[in-house]
Specification:
There is one protein chain. This protein is an alpha/beta fold and about 270 residues long. The chain has helices at about 75-85, 85-90, 105-120, 135-140, 155-165, 170-180, 200-210, 225-230, 245-255, and strands at about 5-15, 25-30, 50-55, 65-70, 70-75, 95-100, 125-130, 145-150, 185-190, 215-220, 265. The strands form two sheets. Strands 5-1-2-6-7-8-9-10-11 form a nine-stranded mixed beta sheet. It starts with 5 loop residues before the first strand and ends with a strand.
């Protein structure tokens, strides 16, 4: 019997080339247990469908000034949409990437989608911060071909301060994936003065050095592309005084991580 459940997604991006190998369809799930201060998709954080301002300046004069963020969809309908590009997946060794938000925030819906992908022999990647109990996560992982795992801090107080949650579960789950020899690409957002200090970089390198089967490390430079979304959501933007790291700084960090003998690239 085919699994079919409902979930909420807020975007489906075709022909994605930065969310795993090959040409991919990236499905963005609504909801995230983390509240990272630099998040460039703040509209993804709440689990429910939202309506946000299209243009805050014109909102007082425009009766149609709101747009819906998120829609409910059944997993069977979603797999039908994903299957439209199977030819491109096959030719490029691509597939589908479940992102967000964090797909683990809708783990039953995610599990249903993954099962359907397996039935259709579609390569699956999971882009996640790993914040879910291991008892639930280990039910999902066998259905995933590749995990794109976000690593923001090793230092727990900093992680809790800037994301809203402890990273103990996140680091434990990453270690458990390593013990399973699961294919993992680590993605590290580089936030100047927050997690690019010598101490934090040293802790990250030391932690990663104890892991198995890490196929890639992606260093993602901080940017302010999502800044206007905070105004549209009537949320404070806390990163106003932060700046994008220079290319020289990113190259310097790249060289540091390359001491692990793991492929490292800037961007992802």
């Amino acid at each position: 019997m085919k699994s079919d459940t409902s979930g909420i997604v807020f975007d489906i991006k075709k022909f994605a080339i930065h969310d795993g190998p090959g040409i991919r369809t990236t499905v963005f799930f609504k909801g995230c247990p983390l509240k990272c201060e630099w998040c460039h998709n703040p509209e993804s954080q709440k689990h429910e469908i939202e309506h946000i301002l299209k243009n805050p300046i014109d909102s007082l004069h425009n009766d149609n000034s709101y747009e819906q963020i998120g829609k409910k969809i059944r997993s069977l309908d979603l797999i039908d949409e994903i299957k439209k590009d199977v030819l491109f997946y096959d030719e490029s060794d691509g597939g589908v990437t479940f992102s967000g938000g964090d797909p683990l925030s809708q783990h039953e819906f995610l599990k249903s989608c993954l099962q359907l992908c397996k039935e259709n022999e579609i390569h699956t990647a999971l882009d996640t911060a790993g914040y879910l109990s291991w008892s639930k996560l280990k039910e999902i992982i066998p259905l995933v071909d590749l995990v794109l795992y976000d690593l923001k801090f090793v230092d727990e107080p900093k992680h809790k301060k800037y994301t809203g949650v402890s990273n103990k579960l996140i680091l434990e789950n990453l270690s458990n994936l390593s013990a399973m020899n699961k294919a993992v690409w680590i993605r590290i957002p580089i936030i100047p003065t927050l997690n690019d200090t010598e101490d934090e970089i040293h802790q990250m390198i030391n932690f990663i050095s104890r892991l198995n089967n890490i196929g890639s490390i992606d260093l993602l430079p901080f940017h302010k592309i999502g800044k206007n979304k905070y105004q549209r959501l009537n949320l404070p933007y806390k990163m106003e005084n932060f700046f994008e790291p220079s290319l020289d700084r990113m190259e310097e960090l790249k060289r540091k991580f390359e001491t692990l003998n793991i492929p490292v690239k800037i961007g992802g």
